[in-house]
Amino acid sequence: MLLALARSKRGINVRQFAERHGWQWRSLYRDIETLEKAGVPIERPEHGWFTMSERCLPVFTVDVRPEELSALSAARQLAPGLKDTTIGRGLDSLWSKLSTPGHQPSLPLGEEPWLHGSPPAIDYGPHRIVLDTVREALRTRRALRIRYHKPGSEPGDRIIEPAFLQWDPAVEALYVSAWCRKRGSQCTFAIHRITRAEVTDESFAPRREAIAEMSKAFRLWSRPTTQRVVLRFSPRVADEVRERTWHRTARFTDSDDGGVFLAMDVGAPEELERWLLGFGPDVQVEEPPALAEQVRTRHAEAVAPARLGTLRARRDRSAEPAELAEPAATAAPRPSRSKL
What we know:
Elements: H1 2-7, E1 12-13, H2 14-21, H3 25-37, E2 49-50, H4 66-77, H5 86-98, H6 128-140, E3 142-148, E4 156-168, E5 173-180, E6 185-190, E7 194-203, H7 209-214, E8 227-233, H8 235-242, E9 251-254, E10 260-266, H9 273-277, E11 283-287, H10 289-302, H11 305-319
């Protein structure tokens, strides 16, 4: 009741407040009288209404243990790219409040000495306005007008219906999953590639299938249906592959040569291309055939004779000694005058 008295702009109506919480309104009146006798400055702006200043709230001590504060500090350090956003500032503010002497056991307001993070892959400080706008659209369930700039293409305008935000730890980036009216499908948009965002007046009904479709994705590319993917990893990387959970449907089967088969059902197998290329010859795509051909084509392009010739020429030029390099063109010397 104290929090309601202090944080409600108008205050509280005792009878309405009692009915809302299932309390006896006469008991609330007695509690208010007790508070007034104790010196709490409760005001009565009108009949039946009571209020007080938030500055008059007593200092509460929440039983937060040091290991819980340590976990909060670690969360701040593990999200360095959000530091200058509303979310990052909220984490800093909460940390400051909980570690202030008089409220909680005092801890140094620094970083955890046992945890060292790398610089963020993406700094979301410059994108904080876009991020806040997306969060507002999610909160109010209103369509969002955005300008999206994907690398290698021209910026384009579209209207989307955001479903949720998603953090991809593999690439350390934040995405919004949304229904794209332009494409007529569920799509994923990188927050740092949205150059402009504006909440419209158009409301929309949440699409229940959005979360279900995203759960089928390998990482970010959602589809209504799934395809079986079977990969065979060599003994050299088998243990490394077994260490991780690649998908909720992932199943491992040992091969006779000490390698491992990985089978999973994902929404868009083509999304695995870059991940598979990173394993080089240590992975073979058993299923589906289209993904196997896709990876085979990329490997062939990487070792194409024309490409190798270009790379070899660049390497030879960079290794050529300076004194053997072709001299720059110079002006022809003037002919000397003969003596008479």
